[in-house]
Design a protein that fits this description.
Bound molecules: flavin mononucleotide
CATH class of chain B: Alpha Beta
Strand content of chain A: 5-15%
Mean pLDDT of chain B: 93
Helix content of chain A: 25-40%
CATH topology of chain B: Glutaredoxin
CATH topology of the largest domain in chain A: Rossmann fold
Radius of gyration of chain A: 26 Å
Strand order of the largest sheet of chain B: 2-1-3-4
Low-confidence stretches of chain B: none
Order of helices and strands of chain B: HEHHEEEH
Oligomer: heterodimer
CATH class of the largest domain in chain A: Alpha Beta
Strand order of the largest sheet of chain A: 12-11-15-13-14
Low-confidence stretches of chain A: none
Strand content of chain B: 15-25%
Largest interface: A-B, 32 and 33 residues
Largest sheet of chain B: 4 strands, mixed
Largest sheet of chain A: 5 strands, mixed
Number of helices of chain B: 4
Distance between the termini of chain A: 70 Å
Structural class of chain A: alpha/beta
CATH architecture of the largest domain in chain A: 3-Layer(aba) Sandwich
CATH architecture of chain B: 3-Layer(aba) Sandwich
Mean pLDDT of chain A: 95
Chain lengths: 596, 112
């Protein structure tokens, strides 16, 4: 008989999958066989640990040793040293970016220390393909309590008392939405989980579905019980194949175990969940477009009211909640609404998951109590800005959001404070930008995205975003004109007021937010034909500062178009007609003698 | 159909298997090179069987304990509240006695 003394969890999230976790798993199995430990040590594929930059991640229990960037060739050493001889392999441990100190235990790593994992509670902890592991972590206990010991009204009351607000972007109080769907009179109702997650760079929902799919299924069943629905759909983009696969496995297991299907826990409550795949259009995350897509039509929005809770899928009352919103539900019912409400701030209860990206040392998923400041997220959890560069801004709220400057780093992250500061929570994208970022170019990037994703149904969004993008493109190409800023502001006002759905209504936000805090950059582009951050190529002009140039010739060698000339040990020159402004010379010059 | 009692039974059974990931009490076996040469692997396997048979809330861990070679194999017990006890020159048979002496202290896992 085999008795297992150690579990080796290998992250199988999308990030680690791309960095080769499958090969690492295979090599670990082979090494365990070689050392006769296959019967004592179990290799388990887990969900995402959130620290994607450090992948593939391997966690060894019972010690809880956290290994990073493990390559297949490291498997032999891990098995021989750690699993056979009990010696932690130092070189594979995480090193704090500032102190360079190795940290052995997961909970001691700066990236995790200030996190509070509620929605991500099981991600990286359990095998997402095992319903039993979910059950061992109190899985389906909340559903059991709801359907066997509570009335639907009591369930809704607890969700209301928890103060949970929707994590998909709007921040609408969840309990109230459930109540609206409950009081809508119809014999057929639906529960929909919005897993479209279209914000560029966001992957919170994907990670939850990959790492803890049962938490979402359980929550959907609870929602079904509360509003009186017996069918749910998860709308997930086909670009998330691992999430779709794990969700399919989880639904199958839940049906086989009797946790989905007829007469759940012997009651007269029946519920099932189906998956509907989206093609990855941003607008299909908008709830009315999403429902249109599920119904089999092209995903375009429709006017609200009527709201989905009154007239949704196939005209029936429909409750739509985001993945992360739902992942919080079992915790609320299990530990009580007051416990949940004790986390966070007055108006924003609980935690929020962010996808931390951009110019930051620790990229990945972080879950923090509402009210944590941006500074804590960027510096304490994110480990600060790489290369000693200065923080310039951070973008929250994705394409609908805004950028906050360094002066607002102490803003607490909650729905109301972010709006008051000039941005918004959104679904959880958090992009950090350093001093080398051009804010006009950032606005252009987001507008290019929304313009591209505009479904074209309404004129203000279809035409208006195009005109705004054209103006921004002109400005970044050095062809900006006096009056462009006013024109942008006027267009923004019309588009946000007249667009049919949230996509158009919020599309101008990145422009308005950058204008609010970085107007001088727009003015420098238009009036001085200068990009202060040195990003907009058309506005750059490279030249070599003769006093600094030592004539080493490195720039000449690296220039791909032979635009640089000069004798050895004599100041060099750039031929501006030939220069393609690629910046290779600036990166190479050891004397910082090239300006732009 | 699954009943709540059946759900709880699955929870307790699997929790036992997963106690490795959230250990309370640990029985550390010195399995460095010297420990292994002195027979620590046998001690470890025996300890695992014994702990399993008794369903104890005790996790067996291999570690390279820094102890004199003459003391090997070494077994160190660390309780959930951090109290330590060290046993030296432990044989595979001896580990049965050690575990018997710890059984009351650590208790059994839920559902056992
Ligand atoms: C353009 C656009 C895209 C959206 N994309 C998403 C998305 O990907 N995921 C999501 O949950 N909500 C998205 N939303 C918000 C949804 O319309 C809806 O408010 C949300 O799913 C409700 O769930 P919640 O109350 O749990 O947040 C989007 C809204 C707009 C306007």
């Amino acid at each position: 008989m085999s008795i297992i003394r150690s579990h080796v969890l290998v992250c199988g999230g999308t990030g680690c999958f791309s960095s080769g976790c499958k090969k690492v798993q295979a090599e670990l199995h082979a090494a365990l066989e070689r050392h006769g430990l296959a019967n004592e040590v179990r290799v388990v594929e887990s969900g995402c640990f959130g620290f994607c930059k450090m992948g593939p991640i391997v966690m060894v229990y019972p010690e809880g040793a956290f290994y990073c960037q493990v390559m297949p060739e490291d498997a032999e050493e891990l098995v021989k040293e750690h699993l056979l001889k009990g010696r932690v392999v130092e070189r594979l441990l995480y090193k704090e970016p500032v102190t360079e100190e190795s940290v052995a235990l997961f909970n001691d790593i700066g990236f995790y220390k200030k996190q509070h994992r509620v929605a991500l509670r099981n991600c990286g902890k359990i095998n997402p393909e095992s319903i039993e592991e979910y059950i061992a972590h109190d899985g389906y206990q909340a559903l059991a309590r709801a359907v066997t010991r509570m009335t639907p009204e009591e369930v809704i009351e607890e969700v209301k008392r928890s103060g949970l607000r929707g994590r998909g972007g709007g921040g609408f109080p969840v309990g109230r939405k459930w109540e609206f769907a409950r009081v809508s009179k119809d014999s057929i109702k639906y529960v929909v989980c919005n897993a479209d997650e279209g914000d560029p760079g966001a992957f919170m929902d994907r990670s939850i579905l990959e790492g803890d799919p049962h938490s979402v299924i359980e929550a959907m069943a609870i929602a079904g019980y509360a509003i009186g629905a017996s069918q749910g759909f998860v709308y997930v983009r086909a670009e998330y194949p691992i999430a779709v696969e794990r969700l399919s496995i989880a639904i199958k297991q839940a049906r086989e175990t009797g946790l989905l299907g007829k007469n759940i826990f012997g009651t007269d409550f029946s519920f099932d969940v189906g998956i509907r795949l989206g093609a990855g259009a941003f607008v299909c995350g908008e709830e009315t477009a999403l429902m249109t897509s599920i119904e089999g039509h092209r995903g375009t929005p429709r006017p609200r009211p009527p709201y989905p809770a009154v007239k949704g899928l196939w005209g029936k009352p429909t409750l739509i909640n985001n993945v992360e919103t739902l992942a919080n539900i079992p915790v609320i019912l299990l530990h009580g609404p007051d416990h949940f409400a004790s986390i966070g701030t007055e108006g924003s209860k609980g935690t929020k998951v962010f996808a931390l990206a951009g110019n930051i040392n620790n990229t990945g998923l972080v879950e923090v109590p509402m009210g944590t400041t941006l500074r804590e997220i960027v510096y304490d959890i994110g480990g600060g800005i790489p290369g000693g560069k200065a923080f310039k801004a951070c973008q929250t709220g994705g394409p609908s959001g805004g950028c906050l400057p360094a002066e607002l780093l102490d803003t607490p992250v909650d729905y109301d404070s972010l709006i008051a500061a000039g941005s918004m929570m959104g679904s959880g994208g958090l992009i950090v930008m350093d001093e080398d970022t051009c804010m006009v170019d950032v606005a252009r990037f987001f507008l290019e995205f929304t313009q591209d994703e505009s479904c074209g149904k309404c004129v203000p969004c279809r035409e208006g975003t195009k005109r705004m993008l054209e103006i921004l493109e002109r400005i970044t190409k050095g062809q900006g004109e006096e009056g462009d800023i006013q024109l942008l502001e006027e267009l923004a006002e019309v588009i946000s007021k007249a667009s049919l759905c949230g996509l158009g209504q919020t599309a101008p936000n990145p422009v308005l937010a950058t204008l609010r805090f970085f107007r001088h950059e727009y003015e420098a582009h238009i009036r001085d034909r200068r990009c202060p951050a040195g990003v907009c190529q058309a506005l750059l002009s490279y030249h070599i500062v003769a006093e600094k140039c030592k004539g080493c010739g490195l720039c000449k060698k690296v220039c791909p178009v032979e635009a640089i000339s000069g004798e050895l040990r004599q100041p060099h020159m750039i031929d501006k007609d030939k220069c393609i402004k690629c910046g290779a010379c600036v990166a190479k010059c050891p004397f910082k003698a090239i300006s732009r | 159909m699954l009943t709540v009692a059946e759900l709880n039974a699955i929870r307790d059974r699997v929790r036992k298997q997963l106690s490795i990931r959230e250990p309370h009490n640990r029985l550390i076996i010195g399995v460095g090179t010297v420990g292994i040469a002195a027979g620590a692997r046998d001690v470890m396997v025996t300890a695992m069987q014994e702990v399993n048979a008794r369903g104890l809330d005790l996790v067996v861990v291999g570690e390279d304990l820094a102890m004199p070679a003459t003391d090997m194999p070494v077994v160190k017990f660390v309780s959930a509240d951090g109290v330590e006890e060290v046993f030296t020159r432990v044989s595979a048979d001896g580990v049965h006695e050690i575990i018997a002496s710890l059984a009351a202290k650590v208790g059994t896992l839920p559902g056992v």
